[in-house]
Amino acid sequence: MKFLQKLGKALMLPVAVLPICGILMGIGYWLCPATMQGGDIHGAANLIGLFLVKAGGALIENMAILFAIGVGVGMSEKNDGTGGIAALASWLMLTTLLSTGFVTTIMP
User: Fold this and answer.
1) DSSP state of 43
2) Domain count of the chain?
3) Is residue 33 domain-resident?
């Protein structure tokens, strides 16, 4: 029974990232509805909205990596790796937002 409790706690670590993804993407789609429909993006509010949607999407697209690291950290003895999963989430967002495909979308 103790093993299952530990596994449950380990699975909750990456699940904690999901509300952040939802909030980022929800605010982004609210600011820039053209992101969903494929329209043109003009103005600062639309650009910020696109930025937020891409940041949340980076976490959703790499959820398997987050779960792999989160379960590994959660099953460790001292659970000292929560900073590691936060760093991975930040890295995924930055690499997505600074990729050449996204930068050329913002600045054609």
Assistant:
1) S
2) 1
3) yes
Q: Which residue has the higher pLDDT, 10 or 39?
A: 10
Q: What is the largest CA-CA distance in the chain?
A: 56
Closest Cα to residue 92, out of 75, 71, 68?
68
The domain of 32 spans: 19-106
Assigned token pair, 23? 């909030």
Contact 108, 51 (CB under 8 A): no
Q: Flag whether 9 is in a domain.
A: no
CA–CA separation, 82 and 86 (whole Å) = 6
Residue 99 placed within a domain = yes
pLDDT tens column, 47-83:
888 889 889 998 888 888 888 787 777 777 776 677 6
Position 33, amino acid: P
Identify whether 48 is part of a domain.
yes
* Separation of CA 87 from chain center: 11
